[in-house]
Design brief:
alpha+beta; 8-stranded mixed sheet; 4 helices
Length: 136
């Protein structure tokens, strides 16, 4: 999958993932700021990954762990702070929920502060931290 969004490309091609950039982005997060590089690399290997790119530089990332039949866990959604406020988070979540390999799957995720973003794409709060998108 590859989609154009303004001057950006959103892709699920793992060969395009820039591991150093993903590690850098995640080091600025509250949930993965101490996650070792080896663990990030292993998590990428075992997930469907989404990257956002512009000018050859990765500026966004998300990944999904799934059984490809019933459920996926959306994790590590992050946009480079210099690129926030341009709709990239929305474009990234839209690419995830519309991905053909996740069709028919319910989604779950954890967030401390981005409930409003995910609610726009059908996720519902389960409690203060977790959200779920049900497929009927």
């Amino acid at each position: 999958m590859e989609k154009a969004f303004r001057a950006f490309i959103i892709s699920d091609d793992k060969d395009k993932i820039q591991l150093n950039r993903v590690c850098e982005l995640l080091s600025g997060s509250y949930w993965a700021n101490s996650r070792p590089r080896e663990i990030i690399e292993k998590s990428i290997a075992h997930s469907i990954c989404f990257g956002i790119y512009t000018g050859g530089r990765q500026v966004g990332f998300a990944r999904c762990v799934t059984d490809y039949a019933t459920i996926y866990w959306l994790a590590d959604v992050i946009i480079d702070p210099a690129y926030r406020g341009q709709g990239l988070g929305k474009a990234l979540i839209e690419a995830v929920v519309g991905h053909e390999q996740l069709a028919g799957c319910s989604g779950i995720l954890g967030t401390k502060d981005a409930h409003g973003l995910y609610e726009q794409y059908g996720f519902q709060r389960v409690n203060d931290r977790f959200m779920r998108k049900y497929i009927k």
